[in-house]
Amino acid sequence: MSDAATERRRRALAIFDIVADLAGEARLQQIDALCDGDQALREQVQALLDADAGTREPFSGDVAAWGQALQAQPAGGASDPMLGRSIGAWRVREVIGRGGMGAVYAVERSDGAYTQQAALKLIRTGADSPAARERFLRERQILAGLQHPNIATLLDGGISTDGEPYFVMERVDGEPIDRWCDARGLGLRERVVLFLQVLDAVRFAHRNLVVHRDLKPSNLLVDGDGRVKLLDFGIAKQLEGADATATHDRALTFEYASPEQLHDAPITTATDLWQLGVVLHRLLAGAHPFGLTRDTPVARQLQQLEREPEPLTRAAAQASTEQAAQRGGHTPATLARALRGNLAAIVQACLRRDPDTRYASADALANDLRAWLDDRPIAAVRLSRGERSRLWLRRNRGLAAAVAAVALALLAGTGLAVWQAREAREQARIAERESESARAALAFLTDTLAAAAPERAMSTEVSVRQLLDKARQQLDQRTLAPQLRQSIQRMLGHLYGSLGEAETSARLFAAGLQGVQPRNRDDALALARDLDGQSGVLAVLERGKASLASARLGVDLRQRFAPGDPRQRFLGQRQLAVAYTSLADCKQGDAQWKQALATATSMRDPTVDEIGEAHVAYARMLFNCGEYARGLQVSADGLGFVDGRRLPALSPLRANLLWVKAMNGHAIGKLSVADTEALLRQAIAIHEKTIGAGGAQLGEFHSTLGTVLQNSGRLPEALVAHERSAELSRAAGARPIDQAITQYNIGYLYRDYGDYEKSLAAHRRSLAIFDAAGIDRDHIERRRAEKWYALAQIQSGRAADAREQLLRLQQRARALDGEESVEYLDVVWQLLRAAVVMGDRANGEPLLADARARAARFVPPAHPVFTEFLRDEAQFARLQGDLAGAERLQREALKRSDAIGNPTEPSIVRVELADLLVQRGQDAEARILLLQALPVLRKYMHARHATRARAEVLARRLGV
Question: Which residues fall within 8 angstroms of residue 320, CB to CB, at 6 or more apart?
Answer without folding.
Answer: 286, 332
